[in-house]
Amino acid sequence: MKAEISKMMMTAVAGMMVFSMGCKGPAIGLSGNTLRPCPKSPNCVSSMAEDEDHLIAPFTYEGSAAEARAKLIVILESTKRAEIISSTDNYIHAEFTSLIFRFVDDVEFYFDDQKPVIHVRSASRVGYSDLGANRKRIEALRQRFNS
C-alpha cells in the first residue's frame, strides 16, 4: 500500500514538473526603453502599442517624475486587490487580482525620462478576452491620478 502511494506521489510530482516546464511566466518588464508588446489577444492594452485595438493613452503629469511616481504609488497601495511587485526610479510592476476567480493581471508603468509621460501596459495572464477589464482599470487609475 505504501509503495503504491509513493509511486502515485512520484508520478504526480513528475507530471507537475513537466507541466511547469512548458509554462512561461508573464512577458513583462522593459525591453530597452519600451514595455513589451501586447499579445494578439484582446486582453491587453498598452500606450506603446502600434495597433488601435491595444492602444491606450499614456498618463501625463506636471512637476517632477519623482512626484508623479510617489503619487502613483500611493494610488496603487490604496487600490483593493493590487500589489506592487517591483519598483525602480522609472518602472513599476503591480499585480491586480480579480475578486471572484482570482485571475491575476500584470500592470506596468514606465516613466519616460525625455518627457512628462508615464507609459502603461495592463495585460491578463490567462484567457483570451477580458471584456475590457484592463482598459477600464487603466482609465480608472488615470482618473484617480489626474484628480
Number of strands: 8
- Roughly what fraction of the amino acids lie in strands? 25-35%
> Which ranges are low-confidence, i.e. pLDDT below 50, for 5 or more consecutive residues?
8-24
Shape: globular
Following the backbone from N to C, one meets helices and strands in this order, namely: HEEEEHEEEEH
Whole-Å distance between the termini?
A: 65 Å
According to CATH, the homologous superfamily is Kinase associated domain 1, KA1
Mean pLDDT: 87
Structural class: alpha+beta
Percentage of helical residues?
A: 25-40%
Number of helices: 3
Number of discrete domains: 1
The CATH architecture term is: 2-Layer Sandwich
The CATH topology is TATA-Binding Protein
Radius of gyration: 19 Å
> Sheet with the most strands?
6 strands, antiparallel
State the name of the first-level CATH class: Alpha Beta
